[in-house]
């Protein structure tokens, strides 16, 4: 066995165990890597060499330690883990092939939910890695085809070789061929150099030898390219002219019109499924909003032919039609030959139901479960209950045996009964050496010679009940007294249209975005608003929170109403707040969660109360006081925004896509907290599971970590629970709730899949 180490500019250090005797043909859709360790270090430490490597590990953040990464071909894995456990780091290490043991030939496509601070400078879209460069000055349809096929690169080679062959210079074809070969060898040299940098030990030596050989090959080709005409023999000229013509024919086959047409057809089908109209497909990427750019990046990834497909929160910025289409599309990939291996990170529990396996990153290790998430949670709870009962029974048995040993030793010594003394010593030996689990991993009776081969000081494993992570709990403050009853919010025949101030009054009035909306919200109500993108949900929300005024109709509010509004752009707004001061304004201390909230409460709460509120929402201690806003994750910024709303003790929460950026455990905690809260909730979300819990009051196993019996008492209080669908500016109550909306969207998805 040999250990290898890799280092990337992103300061991710990876080591794993590999055998040099594995001569089997690799399956590029599978990974089977043992002894995987991943450490993230700062840039200051990442350049250390030699003996400093052990110091790097001690100063870096360890993500995995001696873990096993096993992905089976064609399986669909849901990667679970709390924020901060290293999910994104693991996915990046896989995608960039930093982990020793991933073949360079493996085709890996990844969609990452990472923010790009300067998209124009980097020429990348939000959500793409460095290898997913998409030019923003191109059209959507053109750029995703280019990203998936590298068509422009092939066309450049065709153009260069064609110009060389058609030139009047008899040496033109030879020069064109050698130039193309030289540039290709340079690309291969880059890969060899990367391989040599990533490896150490015997394989590192082998990789460096291959690098030296490739460097010599590149140098020789450069000499051939620069070779004077008079030194080239007629035989070599004829041979390489023929080779140039053959290579040109091969390249032209790659951009054959039928293949290009098929690729374009697939691209349009994917874009349509993600919500792009024909008009949007022909728009420049730079003209799109952040959400549509993310969809463009997702389409580019889905169009690629790949062995391993990695999607990190792909449902962000998708409406339910896009989510259900993507879910159906990914499931359909398994029906084809050479189906890619899929890894998904998502907070949408309904979406990840398409996965066949669960991959959990916890305590610097990777564990696996074959089955869906509800089955995994039920199995985990059942195993914990079983192990607790077994441990309690074993402890009672041990206590009984210890009393028997003490009694036998006492009686044996008093009566000089050697049999009782030997019996007591034998039982003591069993307690010391053979006490523990009496069942094997298959559930049968444990046998030492079968289940634990070899010599061990202790022959049985201890009965260990897996320690659960501290459950995520979000505590919502009580509301203040309204003093007199009445609706909190009321819309009566409200209509709204967007009117541009630049247009003349004589111009034809634009159509209504919303028409004839009647809606009332009382204390304790749970109102869900569902609909596809563009149906007017955000417009309706802005009317409710009085960020927009009705064109006609009436909006009335309770005189003492306090409302908390979570915008779908809240995270982006907080990131802008946390940006450094512009040049010339002088240095300012970085804005933290504590400093921002302290400034906003303006003395209404003391520092202890502010810290308590932040801590109750998952931003405790130094995380609140020392970490600048610009360094907080998306999920942490969501918690901060909730704190900015809740300190006022609102009577009504209006939440527009609040689950975006949260991990699935925090989504479950928020769902549980909102379900039992005494105030009113108006919820806009594409997360079906979340809406079912908050609005419809559905309770399942995922709520076991909630507030317990108090929530049950709250649920017994009568509430008005209504799900509305907003379509074409009209609000309709759905008697069947979310399921009725889901069924209607499913029919459209099936039509799109057949197109």
Query: How far apart, in Å, are the first and last alpha carbons?
Result: 52 Å
Would you identify the CATH H-level superfamily of one domain? P-loop containing nucleotide triphosphate hydrolases
What strand line-up does the widest sheet have? Answer: 6-7-8-5-9-10
- Secondary-structure-based class equals alpha/beta
Low-pLDDT residue intervals, each spanning 5 or more residues:
1-10, 44-58, 115-132, 705-716
Number of strands: 19
Tally the helices: 26
Rg estimate, integer Å:
32 Å
Strand content: 15-25%
The oligomeric status of these chains comes to: single chain
Overall mean confidence score, pLDDT: 80
InterPro entries: AAA+_ATPase (IPR003593), ABC_tran_Xtn (IPR032781), ABC_transporter-like_ATP-bd (IPR003439), ABC_transporter-like_CS (IPR017871), ABCF (IPR050611), P-loop_NTPase (IPR027417)
Keywords: ATP-binding, Coiled coil, Nucleotide-binding, Repeat
Protein name: ABC transporter-like protein
Explain what this protein looks like in three dimensions.
This is ABC transporter-like protein. Pfam families: ABC_tran (PF00005), ABC_tran_Xtn (PF12848). Residues 376-434 form a coiled coil. The strands form four sheets. Strands 6-7-8-5-9-10 form a six-stranded mixed β-sheet, with helices on both faces. A six-stranded mixed β-sheet has the order 15-16-17-13-18-19, sandwiched between helices. The protein is globular, with a radius of gyration of 32 Å. The model is unreliable at 1-10, 44-58, 115-132 and 705-716 (pLDDT under 50). With 755 residues, it is of the alpha/beta class. The longest helix is centred in the middle third of the chain and has 43 residues, at 373-415.
């Amino acid at each position: 066995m040999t250990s290898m180490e890799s280092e990337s500019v992103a300061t991710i250090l990876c080591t794993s165990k590999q055998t040099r005797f594995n001569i089997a043909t690799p399956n590029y859709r599978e990974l089977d890597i043992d002894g995987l360790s991943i450490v993230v270090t700062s840039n200051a430490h990442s350049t250390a060499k030699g003996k400093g490597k052990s110091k790097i590990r001690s100063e870096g953040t360890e993500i995995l330690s001696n873990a096993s990464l096993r992905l089976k071909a064609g399986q669909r894995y849901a990667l679970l883990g709390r924020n901060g456990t290293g999910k994104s780091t693991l996915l990046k290490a896989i995608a960039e092939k930093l982990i020793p043991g991933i073949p360079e030939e493996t085709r890996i496509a990844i969609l990452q939910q990472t923010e790009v601070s300067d998209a124009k400078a980097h020429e990348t879209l939000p959500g793409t890695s460095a290898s997913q460069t998409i030019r923003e000055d191109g059209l959507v349809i053109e750029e995703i085809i280019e990203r998936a096929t590298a068509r422009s690169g092939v066309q450049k080679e065709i153009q260069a070789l064609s110009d060389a062959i058609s030139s009047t210079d008899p040496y033109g074809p030879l020069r064109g061929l050698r130039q193309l070969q030289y540039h290709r060898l340079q690309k291969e040299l880059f890969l060899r150099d990367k391989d040599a940098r990533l490896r150490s030990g015997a394989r590192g030596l082998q990789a460096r030898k291959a690098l030296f050989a490739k460097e010599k090959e590149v140098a020789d080709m450069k000499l051939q390219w620069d070779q004077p005409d008079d030194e080239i023999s007629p035989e070599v000229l004829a041979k390489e002219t023929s080779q140039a013509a053959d290579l040109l024919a091969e390249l032209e086959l790659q951009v054959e019109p039928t293949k290009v047409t098929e690729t374009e057809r697939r691209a349009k089908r994917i874009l349509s499924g993600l919500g792009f109209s024909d008009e949007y497909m022909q728009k420049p990427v730079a003209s799109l909003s952040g959400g549509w750019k993310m969809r463009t990046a997702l389409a580019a990834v889905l169009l690629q032919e790949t062995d391993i497909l990695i999607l990190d929160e792909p449902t962000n910025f998708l409406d339910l039609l896009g989510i259900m289409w993507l879910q159906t599309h990914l499931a359909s990939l398994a029906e084809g030959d050479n189906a890619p291996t899929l890894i998904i990170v998502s907070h949408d529990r309904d979406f990840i139901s398409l996965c066949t396996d669960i991959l959990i990153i916890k305590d610097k290790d990777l564990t696996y479960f074959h089955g869906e998430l509800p089955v995994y949670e039920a199995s985990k709870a059942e195993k914990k209950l079983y192990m607790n009962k077994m441990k309690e029974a074993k402890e009672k048995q041990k206590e009984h045996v210890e009393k028997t040993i003490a009694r036998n030793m006492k009686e044996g010594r008093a009566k000089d009964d050697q049999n009782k003394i030997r019996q007591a010593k034998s039982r003591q030996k069993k307690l010391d050496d053979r006490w523990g689990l009496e069942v094997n991993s298959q559930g049968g009776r444990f046998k030492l010679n079968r289940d634990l081969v070899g010599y061990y000081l202790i022959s049985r494993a201890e009965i260990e009940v897996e320690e659960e992570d501290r459950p995520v709990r979000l505590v919502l403050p009580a509301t203040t007294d309204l003093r007199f009853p009445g609706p909190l919010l009321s819309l009566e025949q409200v209509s709204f249209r967007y009117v541009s101030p630049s247009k003349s009054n004589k111009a034809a009035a634009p159509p209504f975005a919303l028409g004839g909306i009647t809606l009332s919200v009382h204390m304790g109500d749970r109102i869900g608003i569902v609909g596809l993108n563009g149906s007017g949900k955000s417009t309706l929300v802005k009317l409710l929170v009085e960020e927009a005024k009705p064109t006609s109709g009436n909006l009335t509010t309770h005189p003492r109403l306090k409302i908390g509004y979570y915008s779908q752009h809240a995270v982006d707004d907080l990131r802008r707040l946390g940006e450094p001061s512009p040049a010339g304004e002088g240095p300012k201390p970085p804005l933290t969660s504590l400093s921002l909230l302290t400034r906003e409460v303006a003395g209404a709460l003391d520092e202890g109360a502010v810290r308590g509120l932040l801590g109750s929402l998952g931003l405790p201690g130094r995380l609140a006081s020392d970490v600048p806003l610009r360094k907080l994750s998306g999920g942490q910024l969501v918690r901060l925004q909730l704190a900015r709303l809740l300190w006022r003790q609102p009577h009504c929460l209006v939440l527009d896509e609040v689950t975006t950026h949260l991990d699935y455990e925090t989504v479950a905690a928020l769902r549980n907290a909102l379900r039992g809260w005494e105030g009113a909730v108006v919820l806009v979300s594409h997360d079906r599971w979340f809406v079912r819990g908050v609005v419809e009051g559905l309770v399942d196993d995922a709520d076991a970590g909630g507030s317990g019996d108090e929530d049950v008492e709250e649920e017994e209080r009568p509430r008005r629970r209504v799900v509305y669908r907003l379509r074409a500016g009209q609000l309709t109550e759905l008697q069947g709730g979310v399921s009725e909306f889901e069924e209607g969207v499913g029919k459209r998805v099936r039509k799109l899949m057949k197109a």
